[in-house]
Amino acid sequence: xxxxxxxxxxxxxxxxxxxxxxxxxxxxxxxxxxxxxxxxxxxxxxxxxxxxxxxxxxxxxxxxxxxxxxxxxxxxxxxxxxxxxxxxxxxxxxxxxxxxxxxxxxxxxxxxxxxxxxxxxxxxxxxxxxxxxxxxxxxxxxxxxxxxxxxxxxxxxxxxxxxxxxxxxxxxxxxxxxxxxxxxxxxxxxxxxxxxxxxxxxxxxxxxxxxxxxxxxxxxxxxxxxxxxxxxxxxxxxxxxxxxxxxxxxxxxxxxxxxxxxxxxxxxxxxxxxxxxxxxxxxxxxxxxxxxxxxxxxxxxxxxxxxxxxxxxxxxxxxxxxxxxxxxxxxxxxxxxxxxxxxxxxxxxxxxxxxxxxxxxxxxxxxxxxxxxxxxxxxxxxxxxxxxxxxxxxxxxxxxxxxxxxxxxxxxxxxxxxxxxxxxxxxxxxxxxxxxxxxxxxxxxxxxxxxxxxxxxxxxxxxxxxxxxxxxxxxxxxxxxxxxxxxxxxxxxxxxxxxxxxxxxxx
Length: 507
Ligand SMILES: Nc1ncnc2c1ncn2[C@@H]1O[C@H](COP(=O)(O)OP(=O)(O)OP(=O)(O)O)[C@@H](O)[C@H]1O
Ligand SMILES: [Mg+2]
Hints:
Radius of gyration: 28 Å
Largest sheet: 5 strands, parallel
Bound molecules: adenosine-5'-triphosphate, magnesium ion
Distance between the termini: 75 Å
Strand order of the largest sheet: 11-12-15-10-16
Number of strands: 16
Structural class: alpha/beta
Strand content: 15-25%
């Protein structure tokens, strides 16, 4: 007879609820049961625990062993409960003493049959919750680098189940604390420079405006005009992640089983570029278990959708929810989770299926109906949510290699200079309204983005001539606001509105 309770955590969206692993050893015929909504992989834990205990020379208790994973109605997944279950059996049968307070220490680890501990995916999220609750952690040694971001939390590591036999073997790990914010470090990684892009002055300017105001950007241009090149340069124009943002990004990556930041503790601003054949699950989230998708992996960063019309229509429609609310809900059989998804969208497309529409030599071979069909794959409501829409010309040889190109290259800002402008513009927005211009709602747009008489006249005239909807006019005002902020101007003047108008092509 015996009882033990070991703490651990499950996963539910971006929350890691506490799980009490209760172990009861009773008399009777030998049985070994796990209850409390274990997924098949947790049920298989019995076999791993039994073999590991035997291999490490522990005695497997005779009689009835009942493991309850409480709360019973919370689904439990993964191999992470192997270590708490094995430890619970050892403590209940008086065979182990881990040398730490079981009421304030959480245990994680998947066991191999010889008692070796294997890494637990998604541990960062659990560790962040443990730290907030003032709990210590015992984790597989190979998980330690991932936990560098979590400070102020006592972490012990374990390599082998046999280590539980001696009190004091699990010493607290001294972890090197990274200086400054984990996001700050990302600035040190070499990023591609804006100055590498030849020609395309307007597109480069649009990229800086998009960075300054957090606006979505759609680029339409012939193949090889530099659309992908430009998109890759947007993360470099955004200020480094704050500490909290970096933790959120790392927790989502850890939850999605991405190993990008594991081992280094550095978190760069995300740049996600899913292929157009990606499924809705991959983009929005979901699948076999509730996992974040590309939209959440791009949280606080850039989501680049190349060849936008080629994406599945359902995928494109599903983007509207996160673009509006900055969150996405993922539903699976009996689970539902909400993940953050505040990304900046950069999309690229060719003007027609062959990519040569509007070009004289070589001419476009697609008929008007094919072009129309291609463009109409992107719905109006989605386009409505992209503030900047730009038609890119092809770059000619002169712009690419000529003397003029070299001269103008020196004039146009590189990434470092543009980043300074973006930082200043973002500070102005933060002080004025607490968020970037792209996130202003219709009412706030009217109150915060007031143009002077010249600016309003120009906008009114353009609206009459081109037939801009109220929504389009708001978008133009928001972009004009960002242009004025880049200049440090309080008022929105006619030239700001004019530049914003030039960065819209209405379909
Ligand atoms: N404006 C430019 N300045 C310098 N190099 C360029 C420019 N445009 C294209 N290139 C060169 O051409 C290559 C292809 O460019 P990129 O992939 O950005 O074009 P794209 O517009 O995305 O084409 P596609 O429509 O085929 O995807 C780049 O790697 C770069 O070497
Ligand atoms: Mg491309």
